[in-house]
Design brief:
alpha+beta, 144 residues, globular, six-stranded antiparallel sheet
């Protein structure tokens, strides 16, 4: 099944809205854990979800993108996996227009509030990227 760019961006918008409804936005980004970060995980959506002990509710199941909602003790997040690095970057570039925090790995992205993303990063590795802050408290954090 082929997805159009519009459908991919619509999925990104839904993911960002989910993030915004759960995000309290704590401020300056200094509270993000500076703990040791594991090597970034790779794998299927199900493999990544299993690493954080969640059973994803699959929302999109297409050749280019698979996306599911996960609930864990620390909160709720969206996990998306991509067929290509380019597809991931295009999706992420479009999604960032809606704000939110994104944990970015190799061909996967997790979207959630600051606490959830920080917790996930401790298990999955990755780099934290922030969307465009329309409320004035955006940040862009990199890590290992």
């Amino acid at each position: 099944m082929r997805l159009t760019r519009e459908r991919l961006l619509a999925g990104a918008a839904v993911a960002a809205l989910l993030t915004l409804t759960g995000c309290g936005g704590s401020g300056d980004g200094a509270d993000t854990a500076r703990e040791s970060v594991p090597v970034t995980m790779t794998g299927s959506l199900e493999n990544l979800a299993a690493e954080v002990e969640c059973r994803p509710d699959i929302q999109t199941d297409a050749d280019e993108i698979r996306q599911g909602v996960c609930k864990v003790a620390g909160g709720r997040f969206i996990l998306a996996t991509f067929a290509t690095d380019r597809g991931q970057r295009e999706w992420l570039d479009g999604a960032k227009d809606y704000g939110g925090l994104y944990l970015v790995g190799t061909k996967w992205v997790a979207i959630g509030d600051r606490k959830t993303v920080t917790t996930l990063r401790g298990r999955l590795g990755g780099t934290v990227e922030a969307g465009i802050a329309h409320g004035g408290h955006g940040d862009h954090e990199h890590g290992g």
